[in-house]
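Tokens for Carbamoyltransferase. Go.
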Amino acid sequence: MIVLGLSGLPNSQRRLHETRPDIDPLDARICQGLDSAAAILVDGTLVAAASEERFDGDKGTGALPRNAIRYCLDEAGVRPEDVDVVAHGFDYDRHKRAFVLSREYFDEVLTSQTVRDGLTEAGWPVLAERLRPVEHHRAHALSAVVPSGFSRGLAVVSDGMGEVDSLSIYRFVQGERSDGGEPRSELEKLHSQPIAASLGILYSIGTRFLGFQFNNDEYKVMGLAPYGDPERFREVFRKLTRFDADRGSVVIDWPTGALADAEDGYPNARALLEEQTFTPKPPDGSIQRDEADFAAAMQECLTELLVALVGHWLEKTGETSLCLAGGTFLNCKSNQSIADLPGVERMFVQPASGDDGTAPGAAWAAAAEDGQSFTVSGPFDPYLGPRYSREEIRAVLEARPGLRWREVGTGEEYLAAAAEDIAADRIIAVFHGRMEFGPRALGNRSILARPDGDHIKDRINSAVKFREAFRPFAPAVHVDDRDRLFVTRGFDADQYMLCTAAVRPEAKAMLSGIVHEDDSARIQTVTPELNATFATLLDQVRERTGTGCVVNTSFNVKGQPLIMDPATAVDTFSRIALDRLYIEGFVVEGDAAQQSSTRSEGSTS
């Protein structure tokens, strides 16, 4: 059975900008159906998955993922007519009555017919005929349940909104059937809560209040929070939110009308916050006391509510294995507190927890409905995107006169040279194998550096990434070094940069470039089983520095999606202050003069 999974609502973002041509850029992502992606299952195996943004360069786009679809079909070696089902991670059609007062919007944006029309216009009428809508939160849940490999447990989904819900709790059983039938994943929804009580929207409104982009910059607020003191504004959030232990539900007491005028950035909700706190200043990359304290209080609020919610349902169900999905669970600080709950014995977070992850999730849902069983062995492999041959890389390099490069091959000499550069406090980029699925760079499209390098955070932020100085960097650490450097329960989430860990006091000096203000770090545990090349590189780094750990940040610059292809990799490398690019056995040399002349230009992007 071949199932193509899709995410996104192809008309949503376009309609927003057509009806609001003067929309504030900070509000330009206040719409459903962003982060479109495609994924393909062949007989239950996830063969490929990729976000459309990586192909067209439009970060977070919700457009029909034409390029991602084409890639998935090619990677699987199938034609459109070979696809049995096209699963889409929204099912607004079943909620049509809820949109009786906004029928035009429903017909133009929300109905699954828009996806059918898009597929037909793209030249794939056979795919349009086979479209099957899947409930959004069900797609999210299965995106985590199936690859977790857990036989049973609790699945929690939290995001801005699905069709009509913002949070769902499921109990799942995987690999067995009570009626003796073919084994498959089964979900039982235990609880849900409406959009008015959305934790995702609450956090995004707070993000917008601080002058960052709604539905995009929440990770910046998470990074700012450790610099603040939650005490100053704690009561603001405690008056606004609470956990109802009788119902097992989060309650958010927004006043009537607070959530009106969403496309204007929820002005009433922001005014409410301003009345109770302060008038925020436009962010300039520095740390402002009021803004940091607000971020700290909001982060504390989110974490306390999620811990109470998850703890309640674990106790109520007696389950000990936990699966998390939905954009809320890209918050690695909250994930750490959830992982520390005594009732959690195992925890998996979908690496693509945003809506891109509903592409494989919808595919798994459709396959399960048709009786497909799934067998998961070993950790979930997130390296599902395009790969490029040595010949393709060489063609890109040869097409750029004046570029200095040499071919080394992918053997021991190649990784040893990269390790030598890191040990010598150089900043390098690596481009290997298949691109990562999800927002985190996990060693195949990464910028790497020594974690105790000279002013390493400032050097990368100012001359390479062109981003806010308060933003932390994550470490990638070899599994053999993890426990002597960090305090972690060793759950699967650590392998995908989805959970923070405390840095051991004795390791802070050697990890100064990745230790955040609260002495934590968003770790990626690297294992030979999941990424042999990266693990070998870290082995080589350990031989030279004594520590198998590096700074790992995504290979891109501000406003640019994670780099997918070699041409973009080389062009980006050529205009930022990197020392070398290691790309499939080729070593590309940085040009200091070129970097110097382009830094000021890049810093305005």
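Residues 197-349 form a domain with the Nucleotidyltransferase; domain 5 fold (CATH 3.30.420.40).
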